[in-house]
């Protein structure tokens, strides 16, 4: 049981509320954001008990917050060696959609930049599974993580598909280097659908708690992702989850975390908590300004930094 109260979470939100710096989803062009001022914070303990504050039931797209989970699914399905042939585990120190692969190997640098996320997406499913059945495996994963049938935001898929030149370029580059298991067009389409899966902050905290619980469902012994896959996903989140701000994040906050350009952000407190925050405006790295500030404040107040005892 957690002793974190909704009042504490509300207090933290009040502390970060006035910071309206940052930009809304830059890659979506003139898309009119339905809730630019939304702000939410949620935590989920290992019993599945969720405490939250703010706009905690507002749905948002997972975007890059989907990446560690699909990476874990690829690890479960294909094993570590096959995944490692295509995706490395080193921070790239570059922007999330940088057009660059690992020198020498042609692998994606890691699973949390777009190149690696495309490669991980392509690894899901058997050789003869079509795009739809592969996507159903991915949607099924998020449905199990959330405990409700998740849906895709078709408007976002439509807008992203019209402006997917960078991801198309990355997918073709990966295919050329032998690091993509499938047709690049199919992979970019499936990946756009994966990014547009919608959850709310309470659900994202629950998903994070599964990664904090060795990949196991909360309150049952169902393994949603394998223990080892969860550990690898957490490891890569620790070093690469905040893109080229990852070093600063580990230093200040000290938790594996993953952001999405919708403004969501989740963090994993191993064996204790899943944490999620949502606020749409992003800093120059593509991380939510206020979601990051709220989780930093929570980590600070509750001494959640994984190296706090040292
Ligand atoms: N759909 C976005 C993209 O591929 C996801 C990026 C993100 O959340 N950082 O560009």
UniProtKB/TrEMBL annotation:
Family: Belongs to the glutaminase family.
Enzyme class: hydrolase
Key words, A-Z: Acetylation, Hydrolase
Reactions mediated catalytically: L-glutamine + H2O = L-glutamate + NH4(+)
Protein name as annotated: Glutaminase
GO molecular function: glutaminase activity
Protein's organism: Dietzia lutea
InterPro entries the record matches: Beta-lactam/transpept-like, Glutaminase
GO biological process, alphabetically ordered: glutamate biosynthetic process; L-glutamine catabolic process
Domain of life: Bacteria
Subunit structure: Homotetramer.
PANTHER family assigned: GLUTAMINASE (PTHR12544)
Residue numbers binding substrate: 64, 114, 160, 167, 191, 243, 261
Record lineage: Bacteria, Bacillati, Actinomycetota, Actinomycetes, Mycobacteriales
One Pfam family in the UniProt entry: Glutaminase
EC numbers for this chain: 3.5.1.2
Stretch forming the signal peptide: none
Coiled-coil regions listed: none
């Amino acid at each position: 049981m957690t002793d974190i109260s909704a009042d504490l979470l509300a207090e933290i939100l009040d502390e970060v509320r006035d910071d309206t710096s940052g930009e809304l989803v830059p890659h979506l062009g003139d898309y009119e954001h339905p809730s630019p001022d939304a702000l939410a914070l949620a935590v989920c303990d290992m019993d599945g008990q969720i405490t939250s504050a703010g706009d905690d039931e507002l749905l948002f797209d997972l975007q890059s917050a989907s990446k560690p989970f699909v990476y874990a699914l690829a690890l479960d399905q294909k094993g570590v060696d096959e995944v490692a042939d295509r995706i490395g585990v080193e921070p790239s120190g570059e922007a999330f959609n940088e057009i660059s692969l690992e020198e020498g190997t042609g692998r994606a640098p890691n699973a949390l930049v777009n190149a690696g996320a495309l490669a991980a997406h392509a690894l899901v499913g058997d050789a003869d599974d079509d795009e739809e059945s592969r996507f159903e495996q991915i949607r099924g994963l998020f449905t199990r993580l959330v405990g409700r049938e998740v849906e895709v935001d078709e408007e976002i898929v439509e807008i992203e598909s019209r402006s997917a030149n960078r991801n198309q370029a990355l997918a073709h580059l990966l295919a050329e280097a032998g690091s993509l298991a499938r047709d690049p067009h199919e992979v970019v389409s499936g990946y756009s659908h994966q990014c547009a899966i919608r959850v709310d902050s309470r659900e994202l905290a629950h998903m994070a708690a599964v990664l904090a619980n060795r990949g196991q469902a909360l309150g049952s012994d169902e393994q949603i992702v394998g223990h080892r896959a969860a550990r690898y996903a957490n490891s890569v989140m620790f070093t690469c989850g905040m893109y080229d701000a990852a070093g600063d994040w580990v230093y200040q906050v000290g938790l594996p975390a993953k952001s999405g350009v919708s403004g969501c952000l989740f963090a994993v407190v191993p064996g204790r908590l899943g944490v999620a925050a949502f606020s749409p405006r992003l800093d120059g790295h593509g991380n939510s300004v206020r979601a990051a500030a709220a989780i930093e404040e929570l980590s600070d107040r509750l001494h959640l930094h994984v190296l706090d005892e040292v």
